[in-house]
Amino acid sequence: MGGYQDVQRLAPMAVLGAFRRDPLELFADVARAPAGIAETSAFGRRMVFITHPDHVVHVLRDNHRNYTKDAPVYRVARPFLGDGLTVSPGGEEWLRRRRLVQPAFGRSTVEDAARVTEECLAEVAGRWATTDTVDASAEMSALSMRFACRILFGTELTAEAAALVEDLRLICDHVANFLARPFPPLAVPTPANLRFRAAMRRVRATVAELVADPRTELISRLTADGGSTREQVTDEVLGLFFAGHETLGHTLAWCWQLLAGHPAAAARLHAELDDVLGDRRPASADLPRLVYTRQVVDEAMRLYPVVWIMMRRAVGDDTIGGHRIGAGSLVTWSPYAGNRHPDVWQRPDDFWPERFADEAGRGAAYHRNSVVPFGLGPRACPGSNLATIQACLTVATLARHVRGTPPPGAAVAPVPSITLRPAGPVPLHLAGG
Q: Which Pfam families match (predicted)?
């Protein structure tokens, strides 16, 4: 490629307007540019848009030491998430806390969590088998909330769960709206800001109360660490709770929406489950043989990555795709656009789960890091293995009992809040499987 002068330049006000109207299309427009890289000015800095998976791998893994999370998309979230692993800029304190958290996602914890997942799913499957219609989005949100509460906190939050879901939704939407319209500041007591801060207080108070009475290895480990204050432990657990509930719930909602709209893929899934399981209920030990089930989950995460926007700040000068990245520049990208890159994927907008086993589904630029739903490099999500097990178990268990078809006109658009969620209900007509 050429030099820095070849980068597509975007007018700041045009970018702001496009981000407000349709941020997913903004990133798609950059991906269609010859170099797949563009620049503008934002937040008082030069901002560089990248789209190709190779460029993302460079930032997250190959030269990760040059890129920090000290960037607006994470700073805006810190009033809620504090300074936990999810939004921490990095450095020695981040590394120390990462080493505390990582062992809590070891084999024994994952096995226990899989058992909890199976128990929760058995109850949902029984109810779905006698139900005509459900909102898959609401159902999966409630289910992922239950997973997170039992696995992280060792308890049920039956009474508080609905309120927590609503507060988390309000917080996510407010942060996303502020990124698009960063005025007035969050500290100004507007009605919207006051609702945001009240929701934050309620969620943090609930988590802090659970941290004060640790019932799981993870919280006990963090609480026992002499280098962490109670507030820091709350930050850490809140980040894990948010990630575990919000991302898994939306991913599962997209799985059901896609399967309901693609009966051939649903039929292939059911055939695999019949072949591998017979009349048995699936368990985590069955997952290595449920190849197509995993491909369904992977394809849903490719098409609708819940973490749809990422950002880093360059510490020093660098070069990406032949283009200079100056120190202090903000580098941003959208997995939603990158996961549909035409150089990487054949039929990039199609739901085609078997593409992961069929070279016909991949372009010449495909490599195993073309989809990184849990991040990459040292900052990859520590709970990625558990999240994948939960998603696959959920699809396999519920598909054994129900077959969903969407009501007429039920196409659901994505909403790019802090996470990428369905714009409204995901209605499914159910029939006993």
A: p450
Residue pLDDT, tens place only, 392-403: 999 999 998 777
Reported as type and span, the H/E element at residue 299 is helix 291-303
Cα–Cα–Cα angle for 156, 159, 163, rounded to 5 degrees: 110
Which parts are annotated binding residues?
381
Domain boundaries, the chain: 4-432
Contacts of 411 (CB under 8 A, 6+ apart): 261
Q: Judging by beta carbons within 10 Å of its beta carbon (0-12, 13-18, 19+), is residue 423 exposed, middle or buried?
A: exposed
3-6, long-range: CB < 8 A, 24+ apart: 3/322, 3/323, 3/324, 4/323, 4/324, 6/35, 6/322, 6/323
If you average pLDDT over residues 280-299, what whole number do you get? 96
pTM: 0.93
List residues forming the annotated binding site for heme.
Answer: 381
Superfamily holding 4-432? Cytochrome P450 (1.10.630.10)
Give me the chain's average pLDDT, please: 89
- What confidence category does residue 1 fall into, taking pLDDT thresholds of 50, 70 and 90? very low
DSSP-assigned letters across all residues of 110-159: HHHHHHHHHHHHHHHHHHHTT-SEEEHHHHHHHHHHHHHIIIIISS--TT
Instruction: Decide: 219 and 210 in contact? Cβ < 8 Å.
Output: yes
Here the contacts of 281-284 (C-beta below 8 Å, separation 24 or greater) are 281/118, 281/122, 281/125, 281/397, 281/400, 282/393, 282/396, 282/397, 282/400, 283/114, 283/118, 283/393, 284/111, 284/114, 284/117, 284/118, 284/389, 284/393
CB 250 within 8 A of CB 422: yes
pLDDT reported for residue 359: 76
Q: What angle do CA 67, 70, 72 make, to 5 degrees?
A: 120
Give the tens place of pLDDT for each residue, 5-61: 467 899 999 999 999 999 999 999 998 888 889 999 988 899 999 999 999 999 999
Contacts of 332 (CB under 8 A, 6+ apart): 47, 48, 49, 50, 71, 73, 309, 310, 311, 312
Q: 194-233 pLDDT, tens per residue?
A: 999 999 999 999 999 888 888 888 788 788 877 678 888 8
423 contacts 414 by C-beta, under 8 angstroms: yes
pLDDT per position as a tens digit, 138-167: 999 999 999 999 998 998 877 777 888 899
Name which of 248, 249, 288, 295 is nearest 269 in CA terms.
295
Q: Phi and psi for 338 in degrees, rounded to 5?
A: -65, -35
